[in-house]
Amino acid sequence: MADQDARGVHDTSSSERSTEPIKWYRTPFYNATVLGFCSLAAPGLWGAMNSLGAGGAQEPYLVNTANALTFCLMIISCWLTSSLVKYVGIKGALVAGTIGFAPYSAGLYLNNRFGVEWLVILGAALCGISAGIFWASEAAIAIAYPEPKNRGKMIAYWITWTCVGRILGGAINLGLNHKQNTAGKVGYTVYLIFIALQCLGPFVALLLNRPDRVQRSDRQPVRLEIYDNPWQEIRATTKTFLNKEFLLLVFWIGQAVYSEAVYYTYIALWFSVRARSLGSFLSGVVAIVVTNLLGAWLDQHSIALKKRARWAFGVIMVTQGAWWIWLTINVTQYSRSGPLYDWADEGFGRAFAPFIFLVAGFQLNYNFAFFLIGQISKSPQETIRLAALLRGTESAWQALSYGLNAIPVLASVGGTYIDFGLWAVALLPAWLVVKTIGVRKYNDESSFGYVERNEETIGGKGTD
């Protein structure tokens, strides 16, 4: 399929592209909507369950172990995604990537209702195999399909759909559990709704356009093909990973995604069921707001690209440090006193607010990561590789974080201390990459979407 995509691109002359009317169902916005619904049905609802803390279970340890297995397998499947794209194309990879989420939800359902544990682990394994493919392919699509000038807003729009899944799940959970002001697990009915929605994912993914069918407003073709054989592609992906710029981002990626296990475990340990349901709902709302604000800022082309990148990085990292200080104080105190907070309790706001702020920080880091990958990529093939490596690196860190948070002492306090340390270690290496944005030219205009990082060519007017 990928080879056919390539022929389709090269057979289309530039004159034909410039005169052909743009069809709404070929636009980047249409494809971002399809991609967004897939993200809602797959990782969005997975995130909705996790935002309850421990996938809605009473204790976080089994689910944290399962999530660690998921992310371990995602490292491998992310790494191999670019080779898979050669044979099935980016659309086929997206379809394959949506398949494994429903079995994991089914495992949580059986565990919640009947205490069955084996399907949680098997479902986590199936989810890990397919989710790595999904994460890598969705990232490549989100970066490559939109026009460069609209990339920030389009990525924010796509991520919004993922957050809608969290809001939907949170609203359902809150409606079903609003009277449960004690510790415990959420009602099992919600899992049946999640499973049904996740089963729709593969069918929606079939509605995505192949790259050669996409019609952009700038009339530039979308190129997302892999030409090398699998072994050459694996070698090329490994070489890309060893690139200095990507290596400098490894700890920054780590501090960004390690936090997910920390704040989900935090809300599972110290909050009532209905407070956890409220957190699930509000986390989605907050994530949508901050994601779109950052996307709008990154697409302010009247402001120099260098300034946009540096201000975004500075605000994200300074606020993230503040949230870690707050959470460190809280968990140190709670590990001694062992409280359980409900929204009617005194001190709930102080306890609950860091969870919401860390969710916001996670989303800001997440969105900014795609921006960075789009800036340092030099070709369509490298976009696929970098997207796969980004998601694979995320998976490695999350496997570590969920694995460590399956250990009680690390779940209660250690995870917070570790991620606070990662934040400090990541500052300088990440800055060495961010400071080059808007200063050096990375992408070849003739080969890839003319994403420009040269201040001289933008003349103080961004990248437009």
Automatic annotation (TrEMBL):
The chain crosses the membrane at residues 29-49, 61-81, 88-106, 118-143, 155-176, 188-209, 246-266, 278-298, 310-331, 351-374. It comes from the Eukaryota. GO terms for cellular component: membrane. It is found in: Membrane. The keyword rRNA processing does not apply. The lineage of its organism: Eukaryota, Fungi, Dikarya, Ascomycota, Pezizomycotina. PANTHER family: DUF895 DOMAIN MEMBRANE PROTEIN-RELATED, ET TRANSLATION PRODUCT-RELATED. It is a multi-pass membrane protein. Keywords: Membrane, Transmembrane, Transmembrane helix. Its main location: membrane. It comes from Ascochyta lentis. GO terms for molecular function: transmembrane transporter activity. This is Uncharacterized protein.
